[in-house]
Amino acid sequence: MMAEEGQLIGAIEQGNSSSRFLLFDSECNVVSQHQLEVQQILPKDGWFELDPQELLDSVKECLEEVGRKCVALRQIKGIGITNQRETTILWDRTTGMHLHNAIGV
Predict the structure, then answer these.
(1) Are 7 and 77 within 8 A, CB to CB?
(2) How many other β-carbons are positioned within 10 Å of the β-carbon of residue 9?
(3) Contact in structure between 70 and 1 (CB atoms under 8 Å)
């Protein structure tokens, strides 16, 4: 289903086990969505890590898939981001590369 020209709001939801992108119309109806699982890395009992590059790539893929499904990405007027809050990623200021896996609790 192709969305009518108009303003849409996107939401990136980054969880411990998946990345998801949702698009909402002006009446808060979900126009389209796409979700991808991400691999959890479990180095010790009670610990978990995520590959930062996999997180970024999965979000990009979700955005692209929603665009292929039904909507011109230029219709998106804003994007909100939600995540699990306790996860930390350190990035190298010079290279832009992550220094280690994302560490979660």
Answers:
(1) yes
(2) 17
(3) yes
| pLDDT of 3 above 60 | no
Q: What is the Cα–Cα distance from 31 to 10, expressed in whole angstroms?
A: 10
Cα dihedral across residues 104, 45, 57, 82: positive or negative:
negative
Strands (E), the chain: 8-14, 18-24, 30-37, 40-41, 48-50, 76-82, 102-104
CA atoms of 40 and 18, how far apart (whole Å)? 9
Q: Please choose, from the candidates 30, 8, 1, 3, the residue with its C-alpha nearest in 3D space to the C-alpha of residue 79.
A: 8
Question: For 38-69, how does the pLDDT look when each residue is reduced to its tens digit (9 = 90+)?
Answer: 999 999 998 889 999 999 999 999 999 998 88
Sheet holding 48-50, edge to edge: 40-41, 48-50, 102-104
Q: Which sign, positive or negative, has the C-alpha torsion 65, 71, 72, 78?
A: negative
Q: Across the strands, what pairs with 102?
A: 50
